[in-house]
Each structure stands twice: as structure tokens, then as C-alpha cells.
Amino acid sequence: MGEVQILKRPQIFFDDIEVGSEVAPITKGPCTLMSMAKFAAMNGDFYPGHYDNKWAVEKDRLPSAIVHGMQVTTYMSQLLTDWIGPNGVLKKFTSQVRAQTFVGDTLTMKGKVTKKYTKNGENYLECQVWGEKQGGTVVIQGSATVILPSRG
Amino acid sequence: MAKADMTLEERMTLEERELYEGFKKRIGQDFVPLYPHSMFFPNGMDEPVHWSRIKRWATVNGDFNALWFDEEYAKRSRWGGIIAPPLFLLAMDDGVTVPADFTGAIYDPDCYLKKNRFPNFRGSMQANCEWEFFEPIRPGDKIDAKKRCSDVYWKQGTRYRLLFTKGEITYTNQKGQLVARSEIGAVYMFK
């Protein structure tokens, strides 16, 4: 695996975020047959079209094997867990796959804050989130609710 | 009657109707898989969560957040110790969710389509995916999953007839705490 850097994410605070604030984007990929096979091994979904190019092309008439929708979804959840820091909480997360992701695709996950409020003593942010591949096609979109600490 | 004039219900073949109504009957009941398929392998929901599985899941997804790897760091956070990433539950699925069961009904054991039974089938995709998180998952936790088929319905797409299936899963831990809830759907495309 080589040298892997374990990352201590910075803590962001409720006070510093406004409606319209951007969620710090992250890039995932490029997706490879290997990354797709590894996901199959962890997720337990071994449909051949997810890691076998010949199968995907011949049986499913696709340009290549396709990335599991669940892997793209997992990438999108990382957008949030990276952003909220060690003391943030991901409360709700919804997503819909909109287009297929193929071998070689690089994905950029993005988000924007749509709501900011305090409820029962907790600081909530609601965000719109989505993922694009190179070229701009939206492959996944959804929403998330997070709780952040305040500076005080 | 021209195809365009028939409703989605009327356009089902005998086999499609059998499948559709079989699933409709199971809505709201505790989910028991009827079509297990070897392409989905059991993922050990019956085992306690092991830190090595958390690390492998995170590594496979290129997620090197210290909360999943560094106990000293995680101890200083609100979590008090290493936790699993929120979607780690996908690495504990026993492979027999509602959409997976639907897929198992359509494909032969070697993953070839049951072409004789479903000649109109054109493919499937993940549809909606909704999660709510209540408690973190920690190494050593034992997670229990209760599953229910929550919906099955047809919709006319721009190109295909679309059959949506949805399943709900409620996850609890060994302390009886509600850990998470999900609703995950898949869409099956038929000519």
C-alpha cells in the first residue's frame, strides 16, 4: 500500500458558517477496476459488471465496468465527515445516483449550506451535496444534516 | 390495444406480474430473503465489529480520517475513542437486502439473466438512499439489523418502464440503542 497519511481534519465551527457557505470539495478516484473490486470485497456485492470490463461491455452493453452506486454514495459521505471535523456529527444523509460512473472517472464531491439553526441546544446545518465527474456530469446528488460545535 | 394506451399495470408480462405481486405482498412484513444469490456474500453482521474491518473499509474508500485509525486522537474527540465512518454499515450488510433479493429473482446463479423469464429486463441501478444516524459504531459493538420491504411500484421513465423497490433497515447495538436507520431503493428497467 505504500506510505499512507492518516489525516487529522481541522475542526470547523457553527459560528463561522453561513447559509450559502461551501462545503470544502474533495476529489475521489480515478476509479480503477482494483478500487471497484476492493469495494465489492468490503460491501459483498459481487455483480461482475462492477469489476469485470469484458462482462460489462458484452452483457450490460456499457463502456466499461461501473462503480457501485454505494461506493459513490460512500465517497459523498466522506465529503461531510472530512468537513465537519472530529467533533462534528453527521445526522442525516440522503442521496440519489443520477448517472453511472465508469473506470477512469474522477469524481469531485461538493456541497453548499442551505439552512442554519439551533434546536434543543444543538447547532444544525443542512446542506445540498452532489458529485460531478470530469466534464461536469452530475453523478450523484443529495442532502445532509450535520451538527457542529460552536466556538464558545 | 396499442402499448402506449396500456397502463403500466396492464403491460406487465405474466412473470413480471408474479414477481411484482410477490414483493407487494411482503411490504411491511419482516423481510426474509426468498432469492439469495451467490453474487451477494454474507458480510458478517453476526460478528462483533472489529477494528481491522473498520480500517479496511476506510482504506478501500481512500478515507484516512484519523477518527477511524488513531485511538489517541479519537479519545480526545467527542467520541472518546475510535469509531466507524457512518456508512460502515454497508461493510456489515449480510447481503440480503430487499433490492438484492429482487436482483436474485431476476438473475440466474451464474449471473446470467433469466432471459426466458424476463426478456424485457434492461438493467438496474441504485435509486434512493436515505440514512439517519443516532449512535456511533465502535470496535466490539454487536449490530442487529431488522429489515422490511417498504415499497414496490412501477413508474414510466423516458425510455423504460421502471420498477422501484425499497427496503428499510433498523440497526441496534448490544446496549439496545438505536444506531441508525436506512431506506435504500433500487430501480429495475424494463422495456
Task: Write a concise synopsis of the structure shown.
The complex is a heterodimer of chains A (152) and B (191). Chain A is an alpha+beta fold and 152 residues long.
Structure, explained:
The complex is a heterodimer of chains A (152) and B (191). Chain A is built from 3 helices and 5 strands, in the order E-H-H-H-E-E-E-E. By secondary structure, chain A is an alpha+beta fold. Chain A has a domain at 14-30 and 68-147: Hotdog Thioesterase (Thiol Ester Dehydrase, Chain A), CATH 3.10.129.10. Chain A is elongated, with a radius of gyration of 17 Å. The mean pLDDT of chain A is 95. With 191 residues, chain B is of the alpha+beta class. Chain B has a single domain (3-49, 84-190), classed as Thiol Ester Dehydrase, Chain A (Roll). In chain B, 19% of the residues lie in helices and 27% in strands. Chain B has helices at 14-25, 51-60, 71-75, 98-106, and strands at residues 121-133, 144-156, 161-172, 178-190. In chain B, strands 1-4-3-2 form a 4-stranded antiparallel β-sheet. In chain B, a hairpin with a 5-residue loop joins strand 3 (161-172) and strand 4. The radius of gyration of chain B is 20 Å and the shape is elongated. Classes of the chains: A alpha+beta (152), B alpha+beta (191). Chains A and B meet through helix 1, helix 3 and strand 2 of A and helix 2 and strand 1 of B. Strand 2 of chain A pairs antiparallel with strand 1 (121-133) of chain B.
